[in-house]
TrEMBL record, chain A:
<feature type="domain" description="ABC transmembrane type-1">
    <location>
        <begin position="67"/>
        <end position="259"/>
    </location>
</feature>
<keyword id="KW-0812">Transmembrane</keyword>
<dbReference type="InterPro" id="IPR035906">
    <property type="entry name" value="MetI-like_sf"/>
</dbReference>
<keyword id="KW-0813">Transport</keyword>
<feature type="transmembrane region" description="Helical">
    <location>
        <begin position="73"/>
        <end position="93"/>
    </location>
</feature>
<comment type="similarity">
    <text>Belongs to the binding-protein-dependent transport system permease family.</text>
</comment>
<feature type="transmembrane region" description="Helical">
    <location>
        <begin position="105"/>
        <end position="127"/>
    </location>
</feature>
<dbReference type="Pfam" id="PF00528">
    <property type="entry name" value="BPD_transp_1"/>
</dbReference>
<protein>
    <submittedName>
        <fullName>Amino acid ABC transporter permease</fullName>
    </submittedName>
</protein>
UniProtKB/TrEMBL annotation, chain B:
<keyword id="KW-0029">Amino-acid transport</keyword>
<dbReference type="Pfam" id="PF00528">
    <property type="entry name" value="BPD_transp_1"/>
</dbReference>
<comment type="similarity">
    <text>Belongs to the binding-protein-dependent transport system permease family. HisMQ subfamily.</text>
</comment>
<feature type="transmembrane region" description="Helical">
    <location>
        <begin position="91"/>
        <end position="111"/>
    </location>
</feature>
<keyword id="KW-1003">Cell membrane</keyword>
<protein>
    <submittedName>
        <fullName>Glutamate ABC transporter permease</fullName>
    </submittedName>
</protein>
<feature type="domain" description="ABC transmembrane type-1">
    <location>
        <begin position="14"/>
        <end position="211"/>
    </location>
</feature>
<keyword id="KW-1133">Transmembrane helix</keyword>
<feature type="transmembrane region" description="Helical">
    <location>
        <begin position="12"/>
        <end position="35"/>
    </location>
</feature>
Amino acid sequence: MTSVLYDAPGPRAKRRNVIFSVVFFVLLALLLWWIWQTMDDKGQLTASLWEPFTTAQAWTTYLLPGLGNTLKAAALAMVIALPLGAVFGIARLSDHRWVRGSAGAVVEFFRAIPVLLLMLFANEFYVRSTGLSSEERPLYAVVTGLVLYNASVLAEIVRAGILALPKGQTEAAYAVGLRKGQTMASILLPQAVTAMLPAIVSQLVVIVKDTALGGVMLAFPELLNSRSTLAANYANVIPSFLVVAAIFIVLNFALTSFASWLEGRLRRGKKSTGAVLHADDATIAGTAATGGGGGGI
Amino acid sequence: MFDFLEGYDVLGAFWTTVQLTVLSALGSLVWGTLLAGMRVSPVPLMRGFGTAYVNIVRNIPLTVIIVFSSLGLADIFGVTLGASDDFELQGFRLAALSLVAYTAAFVCEALRSGINTVSLGQAEAARAIGLSFSQTLRLIVLPQAFRSVIAPLANVLIALTKNTTVAAAIGVAEAATLMKEMIENEAQTVLIGAVFAFGFVVLTLPTGLLLGWLGKRLAVKR
């Protein structure tokens, strides 16, 4: 027993805990049984609905290309949003008020708007002002929406990361004669990036999840979208949802675990300043007072 | 300049967004608190359930949950939340249910980090005067935890406000649905985008400011 909320159980508490466990187990079992029964009633447990997933065809035709598109959009969005976010994060710390102010306004604006609206807007914008083919357009729209939103979130993470560094780092850099730009580029940013890595990896989870929006609203052929094509083909709505959800869970759980492993490693390493940003720190430290984003979809 | 707004019920759409937000916020606060209670409880099975729930739900895209609630829950399982004859209402309720299920995981995590900020002495003192686990949690720890997590909860609430737009995926008549319809039919893409962006800034910015201020005021000074 590690919690301070309760003592190591005595005989009575042990008995009570057993009773609670049994009651909770029964409730949980009833729930699962009800789900199982309903699925059985509606014929969702029929082997023929699940069989497609054991064949290579369902995977190579639907699920893997969908997953590929999901990962492609997420990777593109991350690669573009990261430098953009770094620029805006640094701009928010500028000594010039107009740079600081305008960067802040841009970041707060895009953080306050739902990603879905950004995607819809980008899609319509591409329809009207570019000659993108209708196969390419959804990817562009999804990536644009994700970049606009996540660059502003990453800007906050970068800003929080730089602010979390001890002041002595800047002072020492100035003392050895580095200029402002040099201080940022060779002293502050490298340390901040190390501290930010876990938060950045966590942000990837948000991006991966958000790609699903493009599948429903813009017909972008990602994982959720290929699920509906697959279900249309095999008429297995529930099984296909369960499989797709499982893929998302495994993928994102791996990313989350990687982020916390990285965080633990960086905290233990302690070569630099020891400041490590957790995923939520940026939104809390950054702009709890001014509102804005956080969380994400 | 704003002629294109005629014939569209923009305020009505935003009202649906607000209703969806408030309803889901209340629901997820209750369910999230229960989950947090389970995650710190002395019963291993409840702890396991809480952990599993949070880890699973947090990693599924909200879009998948909402689309599932419409295609899976409603169409196949026949869960219509008492609105089987009214498709609009059914979509609204299913969206609210999905948002509660999803947001509760984040509320739970915020609360749990709040529970960790309550100093050990508080819980130890509560145990010393003979309070049980549920009494300790209800009377001593949670009230302090809530006050210290107002700012993170504000972030969850703001994310929830923005997440209500995902309900557009099952055709709930809220802001994003209307915006999609409008930019497809009208020529002023940029202006329409600006109107809806402004609407969300108006919804989220005061929430953040108010709760941020409240969080600072109410935080337990240690």
